[in-house]
Amino acid sequence: MAQPSSHTGTPSSNSSSSASSSSILPANLPIYALNLLSNPPSRPDSAAIETTISNLNLLEHIEGGYFAETDRDPLLVPNPFQHLPALTNPTAIDDSPTRHASTTIYYLVTPRSPVGHFHRNRARTVHTLHRGRGVYVLLHMERRDERTGKVPVETFVVGHDLAKGERLQWIVEGGIFKASFLLPDAEAKAEGPETGKQGGSVSEGLLISETVVPGFEFADHDFLTAETMRDALTPDQVRELRWLLKRDEQKKLDEV
Asked: In what ranges is there compositional bias, type Low complexity (predicted)?
């Protein structure tokens, strides 16, 4: 059974991130999502995806993709993050003394929005797969190497092929930066950008649920910055993963 890939962030003498043994991702894995980003489908997402968005009342998410909150536990618990140092780039400010015990959302990435950009939550998040396939990339900030200052990078595929090691459920602890991107469901004969076709492959979207404990608040959320990425990863790793940053942070990587 395939195991998740983990990279310690040790600098490599090979500067190529596309085909060398130091690459974080197999060279063919991001091709589908990268093609969708560089050549966005000219038509709306497929009828099946549009039906999913409509029936689940999904809205565009600031991380990329679509979401809908389906549960917010009315039970209030003490806010365990209230007295922690401020996040690097907080999405909102809220030092309330309580948090909801948990929250749950649907989250969907599609051919027209195939990436969930690097971000982190202070709270623990349980992910459950409903449909589709994708890749998750985790930056383990809590395991920074004392000698190099770099952090381990973990990657894994989520999907229904358990024999190949794909995951149906995964947990991301608080403080870990994560990004995700879409993989094709399977080879298909249908033509047309409305199906997310790239190189003979299609996806009807990656649909999951996320349960956050304690409950999600944007004050407990931030996006990975260009500065933090440079600090946490080697130059080769930055070049390989930069496309998973928000676009404004990608531009900052080019600034001297």
From this structure: 12-22
In a domain, 81, yes or no: yes
Domain hosting 77: range is 29-186+203-221
Give 8-12 contacts, CB < 8 A, sequence gap 24+.
Answer: 8/145, 8/150, 8/152, 9/145, 9/148, 9/150, 9/151, 9/152, 9/153, 9/232, 9/233, 9/234, 9/237, 10/145, 10/148, 10/150, 10/234, 11/148, 11/150, 11/234, 11/235, 11/236, 12/234, 12/236
Condensed to tens digits (0 to 9), the pLDDT of residues 7-44 reads: 544 333 222 333 334 789 998 999 999 999 999 998 88
Cα–Cα dist 181/234, whole Å: 21
Residue 91 corresponds to which tokens in the numbers above? 């999405």
Task: Establish whether the linkage from the previous residue to 214 is cis, with ω within 30° of 0.
Answer: yes
| Number of domains comprising the chain | 1
Confidence of residue 150 (pLDDT cuts 50, 70, 90): very high
CB neighbours of 140 closer than 8 A, spacing ≥ 6?
Answer: 151, 152, 153, 154, 176
- Does some domain include residue 167? yes
Q: What is the pTM of this model?
A: 0.87
In a domain, 255, yes or no: no
Mean pLDDT (the chain) is 88
pLDDT at 139 over 60: yes
pLDDT one-digit tens code per residue, 96-121: 999 999 999 999 999 999 999 999 99
Q: Could you tell me if residue 252 is inside a domain?
A: no
Query: 230 near 238, Cβ under 8 Å?
Result: yes
Share of the chain above pLDDT 70, in %: 86
